Amino acid sequence: MTDLSLPDRQTLMRSELPHVIDAPAPGTPLIEALPGLREQIDARLLTTGAVLFRGFGVDGAAGFRAFAAAFGHPLLNYEFGSTPRSKVTQGVYTSTEYPAHQSIPLHNEQAYTREWPMKIWFYCEIAAPKGGETPIADSRAIYRAVDPATRERFASRGLMYVRNYGNGLDVPWQQVFNTDERAQVEAYCARHGIDYEWKDDGELRTRQRVQGVATHPVTGEAVWFNQAHLFHVSGLAPEMREVLLDAVGEEDLPRNVCYGDGAPIPDAELDAVRAVLDEQKVVFPWLQGDILMLDNMLTAHAREPFSGPRKVVVAMAQGHGSGDLG
C-alpha cells in the first residue's frame, strides 16, 4: 500500500482501507487511465470496499462527474436526504454542510431508508489545512464487532425512523423532497413505503420501517447498515437533548429511531454501537485532487472537524433497495 504518512501507524495496520491507486505520472488524466484500471478497481472495491485515486488529473467538478458516470450507472439525485447539501452540477453535490467544528460520525449513505446508492465518490477539490478528513470503516467488521444480541435484535425487529421536518430545527420538507407541492411529497412517500402526516402547523412528520442490518447483493456478506446511532435521541449532547425534549416533546423531535415494532432502543445499546464504530474508524489525510470511491454497503464514511477552507464534493450511483419490509 502507498504510504499515506499517517501519524498513527497502528490505525492503518488494523485495516487495508483504503486501497490506493497512484497515478503512473503526476497529473495523468484519470478519465483516460480508467479503462486500464477497471479490473483492479472492480476487484478491490468488493474486497477492501474503498479505493483512493491519488496524483491523477481530474479537471474539476466536471471531470469528477465524467469519471463517476463512466462506471456505467446514471448518477443519482440526492432525494429524501437527511442533511443539507447543495447541487454543484448534475449528479454532483457538496458534502454535508455541517459547521466546520462538528464531526459527522461514521455512517453508510442513506442507510436510514429502503433505497440507497451502491457506489459513492468523494472528490477533494480543496484539502483543509487542518482536519477535515473523511474517515472510513469496514461495515463487515463493524457487524462482527457489534454485540451478537444487538445484531439479532436489529436484524429481526428492524428499525423505525421518525422525522419531523422544518420549524427551524431540521431540514425543511421542501428541501428534502425537492418540491413545494404536498401532492408530490405524498406520491413519493407512497412509492417508498413511508407513512406521512401533515401536522396542524403545516409541517410534515414521516415514519419508515427499514433494515437494521443488510446482506451485500454481490458478496453475500452481512453488513451493519443503519443510522440508528445518528437519529436516536441519545446522539444529542445532553444539554441539547434536554432543551429539545422540553421544547417540543419526544414525538416532535426533529429525528428519532426505535425498533421496527415501535419499542424504544435503550441508550446503552447505541452507546455500545458508537464505541464499536470508534474502534473501527480509519483516518487518512486528504490531498488536493484525491478521489475516494466506496462500495456504500461495505464501507461507512464520516467527517472530521476542520479549520480553514475545505471543498469536497460527492456523487452517487447504482441505486439498490431492501424491498418491502411490511
TrEMBL record:
All residue ranges annotated as the TauD/TfdA-like domain in the record: 33-315
Record-linked Pfam families: TauD
InterPro entries: AlphaKG_dependent_hydroxylases, TauD-like_sf, TauD/TfdA-like
Keyword tags: Antibiotic biosynthesis, Oxidoreductase
Keyword Metal-binding: no
Cofactor: Fe(2+)
PANTHER family: GAMMA-BUTYROBETAINE HYDROXYLASE-RELATED, TAUD_TFDA-LIKE DOMAIN-CONTAINING PROTEIN
Official protein name in the record: TauD/TfdA-like domain-containing protein
Organism listed in the record: Cupriavidus respiraculi
